[in-house]
Design brief:
Layout lengths: L3 H11 L7 H21 L3 H13 L5 E2 L6 E2 L1 H12 L7 E2 L12 H11 L3 H22 L2 H4 L4 H17 L4 H11 L16 H22 L15 H5 L21 E2 L10 H14 L6 E8 L1 H7 L7 H6 L1 H8 L12 H5 L1 H7 L2 E5 L5 E6 L4 E5 L10 H13 L1 H11 L15
Parallel strand pairs: 5-6
Antiparallel strand pairs: 1-2, 3-4, 5-7, 7-8
Length: 436
């Protein structure tokens, strides 16, 4: 073992805003703005209301805001709520290549909560956000996604580490205490994938809230002198060996101090699981070019990875969470509704007989040579397209931000908020984020 936990902690504790290239700062600010918008949108959902009420009841008299609500609570309660809100409707960021890590929803909520608690600046928040993700994404890459193969929801297991680092950075932890924060975080990981088997989908949103909350707990205890194992990641009974069936320990420190892996962050265009984005983009492109309606389709075949086939070929989703998790449902909905709008994914869509009927005519099959979408129309035509990309492109963040926040704050206020978030490094304090 090469003391990977200690090395990560030492790096994270020493990282400063001045160390960050301009493109890394820009990436971080985009992800922060995207996460704020996702949480504001998520705050209006019924399952979010339950979490918000709990946070307000158990964490009053604090200085940290619940996004979309504006109420002030203690930092752990704000982190719990905002983490759940940011992931409340499949809108938050991820990475490409995938690492089982959600850079926005597990790192911004705890970092923002602590930043508002201690009166940190925009530059301090950005540096903490990057530090948390540099550690968390590397841990995710080391897992090779095999924690999910064992039945864990990956961001619930990688998230506490990134959250702990971001919070520890804002609390000024030195390398020793940052090591303790990571050691404590290792005992706070969790989140089961059982929701994917048909019910209880609300718990998926909670996994990112709990990861966020865990980071505040781990860093706060470490600040006070509480200790955790110095080998929490690489040890005999450490995270990788306990949670993963296979892993690559070298990924923990690969390129550390040279490559900024936070730049692998991608932002979602659609409020759906990441595995469906490319297929949805492809069918929307085919429909735009060829002008067919959903009712003119005889069948659709989506080819992709074995993971897509095993987990996301859900022909009869029983609730909205599973509908967003289902490639057939997302593809079918995109041919009848505007897939970029969260409002399109509601109970009426779940009950729509046309969407349901087309969903049953979508097959997901394994393909070793890459993903494609093939549509057969009732008139016999067969249309095919490579299924690639689908994530937000440069210049599209403003449109997404407005779509997610206009119902809550209006388009004018949305534009002002985004502009301010995009110059976050100039802000001396952050108490305005979430204030209204």
């Amino acid at each position: 073992m090469a003391e990977e936990t200690v090395r990560l902690a030492r790096y994270a504790a020493g990282l400063r805003y001045e160390d960050l290239p301009a493109e890394v700062v820009a990436c971080a600010k985009d992800c922060i703005a995207d996460t704020v918008a996702a949480a504001i949108c998520g705050s209006a959902l019924p399952w979010s209301a339950i979490v918000i009420a709990y946070a307000e009841r158990t964490g009053p008299n604090g200085n940290s805001r619940i996004l979309g609500r504006g109420s002030l609570v203690q930092a752990p309660a704000a982190a719990l709520a905002n983490g759940a809100l940011a992931h409340a409707f499949e809108l938050d960021s991820l990475t490409r290549p995938g690492a089982g890590a959600h850079p926005g929803a597990t790192v911004l909520p705890p970092a923002l909560a602590v930043a508002q608690q201690v009166g940190a600046s925009g530059r301090q928040l950005i540096a903490a956000f990057v530090a948390g993700n540099e550690v968390m994404i590397r841990i995710g890459r080391a897992t090779g996604h095999t924690n999910e193969a064992r039945g864990f929801h990956a961001p619930g297991t990688t998230g506490p580490f990134g959250a702990a680092v971001a919070c520890g950075h804002l609390l000024g932890l030195d390398a020793g205490r940052m090591t303790n924060a990571l050691g404590i975080a290792g005992s706070l990981c969790g989140g089961l994938l059982e929701f994917a088997n048909g019910d209880g989908g609300m718990v998926k949103r909670l996994h990112l809230g709990r990861a966020s909350e865990a980071g505040v707990l781990a860093a706060s205890l470490a600040e006070a002198g509480f200790a955790g194992p110095r080998t929490a990641l690489e040890g005999k009974f450490g995270f990788l060996r306990v949670f993963c069936s296979e892993f690559d320990e070298s990924e923990l420190t690969k390129g550390l101090g040279q490559d900024f892996v936070v730049q692998s962050t991608v932002l979602k265009r659609y409020p759906i699981h990441a595995t469906a984005h490319a297929a949805v983009k492809a069918v929307r492109g085919l429909q735009a070019r060829h002008g067919f309606a959903g009712g003119e389709i005889e069948s659709i075949t989506v080819s992709g990875t074995q993971r897509m086939v095993e987990r996301h070929a859900i022909a009869e989703p029983g609730d909205l969470m599973l509908a967003q998790y289902s490639i057939p449902f997302c593809v079918a909905l995109a041919l009848y509704r505007e897939a970029r709008d969260p409002e399109s994914f509601d109970e009426s869509a779940l009950a729509d007989p046309q969407i349901r009927a087309l969903c049953r005519r979508v097959r997901v099959v394994p393909e070793a040579d890459g993903a494609t979408v093939a549509i057969t129309l009732v008139d016999g035509r067969r249309l095919e397209e490579r299924a690639e990309g689908g994530m937000l492109e440069p210049g599209e963040l403003g449109d997404k931000f407005t779509r997610l926040t206009r119902a809550a704050i209006g388009e004018t206020a949305a534009a002002r908020l985004l502009a301010r978030l995009q110059r976050l490094e100039t802000e001396p304090n952050l108490d305005w984020i979430g204030a209204g």
